[in-house]
Amino acid sequence: MEIEFTKMEGLGNDFILIDDRAGKTGSYRPYPELAQTLCSRHFNIGADGIILILNAKDHDIKFRIYNSDGSEAEMCGNGMRCFAKLLFEKKIISKKKFRVDTKAGTVIPEIITDDEGRVLFVRVDMGEPILLCRDIPFDSPNEKALDEPLTAGDREYRVTTVSMGNPHAVIFVDTYETLDLEAEGRAIETHARFPQKTNVEFIQVLNRNELNMKVWERGAGITLACGTGACAVLVAAHLTGRTEEKALIHLPGGDLEIHWDKTTNHVFKTGQANLVFEGRVKI
């Protein structure tokens, strides 16, 4: 079977988007297996994950994402921007603001265009952050984990845990010089205190409105950016008194503007998404 696909990236976090509203692809080959095959960077298209465009009953559209290892993620902020831009540019959805069904709940992206209708940015309402340890989930004696000690390998870390529909362990560091992102990220991702594993962010605070971020993503490893992670980082930084409610977050793939609107308790993320190429592939 041969299918059409679109390769897109958001700050270097890259995805293979597949329109499977007719259900033919999923009935031909399971999505987890398809993700592992297509995401192989040496033997296939290569990506951090695949994103499916699906029909929804009570939303405008449905979003589902599978990581490169075949595991299903609840949500992905960078992926959502790519998803929204593609829907708008392909005229699958004509509205600039619409409701998306994700495994993390309803997400509302907003398309921001120039005077000629070209997409400049996508602003995504990522919803409310989840802070209770039992809901993240994170095994802790405390209701919330703010700079809580966590021993992984032979090191002790201070983690602040947040869920944006998927779990995040945010760790503030003074320098990246001694950081072994792969080894330390993997050790924390699979730590027994995270029963569903976790994404891991290592953060340098530059000032009260700017942060540097490196990320180890659950099921994907080192990536150039993580949208839900950037949202979790801003929430964690503000909760621990390190930043204001809005900040620019510098990731290896580019910058994201994150705003935690305390009046609604919703987190908003604004950034770019870009087409890489389109094609057909045998599955």
Walkthrough of the structure:
It is built from 5 helices and 18 strands. A hairpin with a 3-residue loop joins β10 (155-163) and β11. It is of the alpha+beta class and 283 residues long. Helix content is 17%, strand content 42%.
**Secondary-structure element sequence?**
EEHHEEEHEEEEEEHEEEHEEEE
Count of individual domains: 2
Q: Can you tell me the overall shape?
A: globular
Briefly note the CATH topology name of the largest domain.
Diaminopimelate Epimerase, Chain A, domain 1
**Helix count from the secondary structure assignment:** 5
CATH architecture of the largest domain: Roll
The whole-angstrom Rg is 18 Å
Secondary structural class: alpha+beta
CATH superfamily of the largest domain: Diaminopimelate Epimerase, Chain A, domain 1
Summarize the structure.
The chain is α+β, with helices and mostly antiparallel strands and 283 residues long.
Sequence-ordered SSE layout with sheet pairings:
Layout: E1 2-10, E2 13-19, H1 24-28, H2 31-38, E3 49-54, E4 61-67, E5 72-73, H3 77-89, E6 100-102, E7 105-113, E8 119-125, E9 148-152, E10 155-163, E11 167-172, H4 181-189, E12 199-207, E13 210-217, E14 221-223, H5 227-239, E15 246-251, E16 254-261, E17 266-271, E18 274-282
Parallel strand pairs: 2-3, 4-6, 11-12, 13-15
Antiparallel strand pairs: 1-2, 1-18, 3-4, 4-5, 6-7, 7-8, 8-17, 9-10, 10-11, 12-13, 13-14, 15-16, 16-17
